[in-house]
Amino acid sequence: MAAAKRSISSRTRKSGKTFDVKFDGRPPGHLKTGMKIRARGRVQVDSRKHGRVPGEDGRVADGELVLAEGNESIQAVSEPPVAQLVAGEKRVIVMVINLLDAPNTCTPSTVHSLVFGSTNSVKGLYNEMSYGALNITGDVIGPLTINYYKGSCDYNAWAAAADAAAQAAGVNLSQYTNKVYVLPNGAGCSWGGLGTVGGTVGRTWIATCGRADVYAHELGHNFTMMHSSTDPEDDGIGNCEYCDVSDVMGYGGYGLRTINAPYKDQMGWIPADKILTPTASGTYQIAPLTANPANTPYPLAIKIGKPGTSSWYYFSYRRRLGYDSNLLSSYAEAVNVHRHDGGIVHTYHLKTLSDGATFTDPTGKISVKQVSRSADYVTVQVTLAGSPPPTQSAPTVTLSPASQSGAAGAALSYSVTVRNQDGAGAAPSTFALTPGYPSGWTGSVSPASLTLH
To answer: Which of 359-362's residues contact partners 24+ apart within 8 Å by CB, and which partners?
Structure first.
């Protein structure tokens, strides 16, 4: 399963020296590529820089800055900019790597099919879930044999060696926006994939070369997405960083599937007029999240602010369509409820609704009920504190003509009009239409039922 991490390096402002940042334990979860930090730890300096390799800027690190586990040893000074729209062409170079004692079991042709193939590929996934806004192109090269053995999992050194081998083979790496390093499955690393978050050139390491969703997950980090998580508000799963597997930013190994509504909003892929932010209680329809916004009259998500916070709730309709064909049944054909706290942070899956089920915010000020669903949309009833629910009243029925006559055995037609008298925002009402006849008469009503919005 893919467990994405970040490659961290730091350059001091006063001395200009560069250090690889290491932690005695797990790095804090709030660190992002491009963030300016203030850190306190111990410096391990190698004056000869023996065995060190150049970073992205061509510099060789002057040593290591070792920090204690947790948030106490490191403080964010400024946040990196949040991408408003991830679109256009992303040029990706994928390098298949052999270690001296661990050849790669995935061939370049296999990897090319996973990443750039015409069907069921990372390229196809991103094109579909961005509604055509993002186009991933590029090349696969290798295998490149580098002068390292398995076990150390020195992924920065391995990447630098692969870059050098690619350049020696005549590859111009400057023409690519993203670099992907495909390691042998037996390289000895404890993770399935790593990815830098944002940055000028995104870098990704793949240690499970045959899983397309791991490639998609790590590239998602390059595009500033974090992990799809759950927390104690969820229906029983609890706090788990990777446990929302409704999209590729959760655990790997579940096949390609599209990202959730908060990430689509963060990437700028859902047009503003297709995200509904209701200010009053009412009944609303949501199209499936895979629907092309240009081809549906309905919004793709409902977005409601969580009271007293800067967080947002997202409500989206997930169906097994397109790249969402791999959705687990616990997410499919239903409204999925997520929370996003804004910026480059995790999303949290809170609940999956079925017809008649309701999500209620812990403050009790927001309630969203799934009323019904169809192939084209799901209907939800939103109740906001301070905004009374819409009224429901009996419909009016009129018959035209009011009366008519005819010879025995003649067929006569009437037009029946049923007019909805419910208040604005009320849920649709379905009425069964059953005719009544005098004894000995026959007749029929078409249609047999009528749904009024």
So the answer is: 359/313, 359/315, 361/306, 361/307, 361/313, 362/233
Instruction: Supply the DSSP string of 191-231, one letter for each residue.
Output: SSEEE--SSSSEEEEESSTT-HHHHHHHHHHHTT---EEE-
Residue 420, pLDDT score: 72
Contacts of 130 (CB under 8 A, 6+ apart): 86, 87, 267, 269
With 70 as the cut, is the pLDDT of residue 423 above it? no
Backbone angles phi, psi at 201, to 5 degrees: -120, 115
Residue bearing tokens 């800067």: 310
The continuous run of DSSP H or E covering 159 comes out as helix 155-168
Tokens of 168: 């020696």
Half-sphere exposure of 188 (CA within 13 A, CB side): 15
What's the rounded mean pLDDT across residues 169-198?
A: 95
What backbone phi and psi angles, to 5 degrees, belong to 86?
Answer: -100, 105
pTM to 2 decimals?
A: 0.73
**For residue range 298-339, what is the model confidence (pLDDT) as tens digits?**
999 999 999 989 999 999 999 999 999 999 999 999 999 999
* Tokens encoding 445: 């009503």
